[in-house]
Specification:
InterPro entries: DNA-bd_HTH_TetR-type_CS, Homeodomain-like_sf, HTH-type_TetR-like_transc_reg, HTH_TetR, MftR_C. The protein has 2 domains: about 60 residues, Homeodomain-like (Arc Repressor Mutant, subunit A), CATH 1.10.10; about 130 residues, Tetracycline Repressor, domain 2 (Orthogonal Bundle), CATH 1.10.357.10. By secondary structure, it is mainly alpha-helical. The chain is elongated.
Amino acid sequence: MPATEPSRDGLRGFTREAVRQRLADIALDLFAEHGFDAVTVEQVADAAGISARSLHRYFRSKEDMVIGVPESYGDLVRVALEDRPADEPVMRSLLAAYTAMMGSRAQTERDRVAMRLMSATPALRARNMEKHSLWSEMLAPIVAQRLSGDDVDLRARALVQASLGAFTLALTTWGDAGEDRSVQNLLLVTFRDLVR
């Protein structure tokens, strides 16, 4: 089979991801119009022309329709962090990893809507914190390997948590109405004093 021809599994995965994105777009439109808490999973499924049961094959929860699948982006950050030079300062490596993840696809106006929804909705903020907890578990062991001295595990978790705070602040600022800087530029701002 030629290298440029997608495998059957690869095509199936692409199709699943395309469907997932379309469902998320439908959900975001409904959430933006009516409010996150006012829209049910059944209403999203109805708008998409599928059953609620089918919708749950793509998203475990309503919150994941806005936040995304936490593991997938976490894996992108983890791989990017692992690829950084071992002697690079940890915060520079974390900044580069988040920047690489954000560069993996273009940000859209719907992404801004998602950030505004997340900022305004307690359930979404809580789900985002769960996502960051998962990411922390993935990233802290990599950071710990780059540290020396006492309490490397605790210090690694502190560095990762600080980086996640800077990452979240960059994204929520980007989502603000009137903000015209890119996520990548805002990451440079929020990490500026952490990478010195």
